[in-house]
Amino acid sequence: MLRSLVPMGAGMADAVAEHIAALKDEDWSIREEAAQKLGTLRDPRAVSPLVCLLKDSDRAVREAAIGALTAIGEPSVPALGICLSDPQLEVQEAASAVLASIADARVLPQLITSLVNRDWIVRMHAAKALARIRNSSAVGPLVPLLQDKVKAVREEVSATLAAIGDAAIPSLLAALTHSEWLVRLHAVEALGKTKSPQAVEPLLSALFNDHDAAVREDTIRALGQIGDGRAVPFLVTVMKEAGLRPLAVEALGQIGDRQAVPVLIGVLEGTGRPEGSRTVAGCGDTWSEEMIVMGAAVRALGSIGDESAIPSLVGALRHTVTRSDAADALSRFGSKVVAPLLTLLSKESDDNVRFHVKETLARVGWRTGRV
């Protein structure tokens, strides 16, 4: 049982002082509890003593100090910025981890410097902290890290550049023609996250001109995230390529432009299929890529919500591959699907199909006996 750290009747000021004193106790459990209490009290006076605890020999104590400094928040920031240049990498890692959650512009220079730290954990957390600050001066130092040897760093940098937004877009667009495919890949990811219309035409150029399959695939995902209707006819063209076809259909659903509806209906009707279709293994079965495409088309039609798709979606209930997705898609149309579903129910003998029809009718508010 831990001995009491605070005398009975002591006020908050005395409690903070008592807990700070307990940070030097020889018993690690007392130090840990004291750090936790100081995190609860959130008194700025505890910042410096807690920072010293980042060098504690016990991991639990160090973690308690990290939690407390995070809880104290803004008053901790300057001291943690200094810790980024501490001789001990463990201290740098701890400080950067806290700053990833609470950093502000006061530590901008230290964070930018930390982007070239030899420790990838520090680089990763520094990038995440810079996403909080969103200062354009970080763009130049961040871009080279799009080819960092550690994937977690690259992904965090991509997210940070996206968070910075407009100021980062020129550099990201320039990166689309970089000689290193990883740079192009993460630039594409960042541009998708910005959702900027400025990125549409450069991404379309990358879609048709980049020689790396992964970059082209992520370009389609990015165009879907941006959601600009200008991409629709180009995605329809890309649908003719096996491998890219499922991604293009999914992106069309994300964009939500009604001009894609006839093409998506065509997918369900079996028109416009590429000559070769890859097989995809899973759960003991072999699925053709077109089965995945059909499911994606059903979901896309549900997202777009054009009533002209209702007959095709009702038809998709008859197929095992698309049945569940079709039921979900139809439920989005509300009462408009009641009549065609009742017609199907009156003719259908397959129990599985009847179950999904009844479930969909219930989801749109229809009950037996209602007109």
Q: What does it look like?
A:
- The chain is built from 22 helices and two strands.
- A hairpin with a 2-residue loop joins strand 1 and strand 2.
- It is 63% helix and 2% strand.
- Helix 20 (323-331) packs parallel to helix 22 (351-363).
- The chain has a two-stranded antiparallel sheet with strand order 1-2.
- With 371 residues, it is mostly helical.
- The N and C termini lie far apart (70 Å).
- Mean pLDDT is 92; it is low at 1-10 and 280-286.
Question: What would the keywords be for this entry?
Answer:
371 residues; mainly alpha; two-stranded antiparallel ribbon; 22 helices; 63% helix; 2% strand; disordered N terminus
Query: What's the average pLDDT?
Result: 92
Number of helices: 22
DSSP strand tally: 2
Could you give the order of strands across the largest sheet? 1-2
Question: Layout of helices and strands, plus pairs?
Answer:
Layout: H1 12-22, H2 28-41, H3 47-52, H4 59-72, H5 77-83, H6 89-102, H7 108-114, H8 120-133, H9 139-142, H10 151-164, H11 169-175, H12 181-194, H13 200-209, H14 213-226, H15 232-238, H16 245-255, H17 261-269, E1 279-282, E2 285-288, H18 289-304, H19 310-316, H20 323-331, H21 338-347, H22 351-363
Antiparallel strand pairs: 1-2
Offer a quick outline of the entry:
With 371 residues, this protein is an all-alpha fold. 63% of the residues lie in helices and 2% in strands.
